[in-house]
Amino acid sequence: MIDTDERVTPELRQAILKVLDAPQRGAIYSIARRNYFLGRFMRHSGWYPDRVLRLYERARYRYNDNLVHESLDSLGAEVIPLTGDLLHLTCRDFAGFQQKQLAYAAAWALERHQKGKKTSMAGIFSHTLGAFLKTLLLRGGVLDGKQGWLLAMVNAQYTFTKYTELWALSHGYSEKESS
To answer: Is the dihedral of CA 41, 42, 46, 48 positive or negative?
Structure first.
């Protein structure tokens, strides 16, 4: 499965063709995704190698029902990494990217709220600060230059929005639950 904002590199194409010539029964193949953000393909920041499971036997595996970032249920499967990159043109338009982030944050919060999860003001602050520091320092965002700093701030903003929406839902300040 390839999304409309993804492109296969020649090296990845060769690796896929090799697998198709001799597939390993029951195996799932992971692909390194290289994410594009504000004019550059990120090399750090937790955005590379953003490995995704995309080549598998459709009759054997299914995607879960997560509202945000659904993933393949691969419990017990052998996961084999492929060479080559899948180029992910995730942020060519920042306003569109932000709109998508807002929608993901609202869906994330609603999913957690429906499971009885809550947060506090301290939780909002600590998760937001943690997201910034994790992206910038622990995941090497500082090595991605200006885009790394911006991505750290965007990740912090996304985290702030997720947890604030969860807080609003749990305090009855959001109409998302009734829609």
So the answer is: positive
Task: Give the 3-state secondary structure of residue 17.
Answer: helix
The dihedral region occupied by 91, where left means phi > 0, alpha psi between -120 and 50, and beta the remainder, is: beta
Mean pLDDT, consecutive 10-residue stretches, the chain (179 aa), reads 91 97 91 95 94 86 72 82 95 89 96 96 99 98 97 98 97 70
Residue 170, token pair as written in the block: 């749990």
- Map tokens 């390839």 to a residue: 2
DSSP 143: G
Q: Report which secondary-structure segment, H or E, holds 97.
A: helix 94-114
Q: The tokens of 172 are what?
A: 């009855």
Amino acid occupying residue 20 = L
In a domain, 1, yes or no: no
Q: Which pLDDT score is estimated for 69?
A: 65
What whole-number distance in Å separates Cα of residue 105 and Cα of residue 108?
A: 5
pLDDT at residue 108 in the model? 96
* pTM, 2 dp: 0.84
Domain end, chosen from 49, 64, 91, is at 91
> Domain range spanning residue 18?
6-91
The structural domain count of the chain equals 2
